[in-house]
Amino acid sequence: MSVLITNGRIVTASDDFVGDIYIEGEKITAIGKHLNVMADETIDATGQLIMPGGIDPHVHLDMPFMGTFSSDSYETGTRAALFGGTTTVIDFILQKQGHSLQAALDEWNGRATGNAVGDYSFHMAVTDFNDKTRPEIKTMVEQHGITSFKTFMAYKGALMIDDRQMTALMQEVRRHGGLVTVHATNGDMIDYLIARHREEGKLSPRYHYLSQPEVTEAEATGRFAAISHYTGCPGYVVHLTCEGALNAVRNATTRNQHVWVETCIQYLLLDASRYGEDFEGAKWVMSPPLREKKDQATLWAGINQGVVNVVATDHCPFRWEQKLLGKDDFSKIPNGHPAIEHRMELLYSEGVRKGRIGLNKYVELTSTNPAKIFGLFPRKGTLSPGSDADIILLDPNRQHTLTATTHHMNVDYSAYEGWQLTGKIQTVLLRGKVAIRDGECKIARGYGQFIRRGRHTGLS
Ligand code: URP
Ligand code: ZN
Ligand code: ZN
Q1: Which residues lie below 8 Å from residue 119, measured CB to CB, with a gap of 6+?
Q2: pTM given for the model
Q3: Residues 317 and 429 in one domain
């Protein structure tokens, strides 16, 4: 099967021109102006932006967490992602403390295999690094193509590891050419602040926010950067939210160190005024919490300075009945918010259309940089001969409204209810197949493939 996409504005992280793309099977085979080829199907992209499919490197699908499971399965989550122009997601496997990494991989494969609509890969979260798990790092990298390892400096008593384990893990991961990613907040400080608020009877969602002040993130980010520097292991900070933490990364650059930084769409667009005294704020109970307007300004600046490299979602949806588990105690509200479907359109409308970022930067943040950092490039993350034909067509002028009544995520509210956006994903191709067209998904559960990843090679 061959497809010819004609006369669209082709944008990658480095190019921007009007032209055609020719696809044979799953791959792009030619790009240029006025391609003189016959195809089984021709898609006229006049007036549309043609860009690489989005890669969201931070999602939690069907994840056991805080006494429940995140509400999107591999099927509903990857399908919703496709509707929003994200063709590949990287999900997090969680090692159970006292158990092997292999056992966790088997468990996640059990939920994912045969169920995904879009492509997916895995990070491995190491929650218990010891002499038994040490040799598994090599196995994950070499046998399974899982080349990034997630750590939590918070969620004390559940997922958190201490600095001793972090140092040992980073030394081992470095030996095998992997990358360590981190949820960088100070778990002991947060644990204390949660306990104190509960003792004082301060139980509304607002106290979730007040239990994780900026200093908890700034301190842990600096500490992680120091361990990364000492061990020589590449480090990536997930869901960075605030000025203090970004300054800790900037400090690391003064010793010529790269610490890769991801922020998430919610931290760019939403702020802590969402946390009132009523329970409504539970919709935005996530860790780290939403921050201040000054932090949003810092993150946009960080993007244009090249210090923030990726915009992800940390998609971790819970239905309202699940959020109600914490109606009398903020510490029991499942942490996370739904966004897998909206990242690309929100960032286009609020970022590109409002003049905060350029189009090449948009592609870099949503696709090319995650592909490079996580060993998917150039198979994914760009439009070039030999790459997977993961392609989005975006109508830059079409207006639409986000609402829970029309979104495709398995969650009964929207964190962006009523937001009016300009720019709509119209058509999505995944490995050469039309996946989304005319508001419908054209591919079935099971089309999505597990993608083995290569080693981290930096961003050049
Ligand atoms: O609130 C969040 N972020 N939930 C998902 C788990 C994590 O910390 O990424
Ligand atoms: Zn986290
Ligand atoms: Zn997360």
Answers
A1: 78, 87, 88, 89, 380, 390, 430, 431, 448, 449, 450, 451
A2: 0.98
A3: no
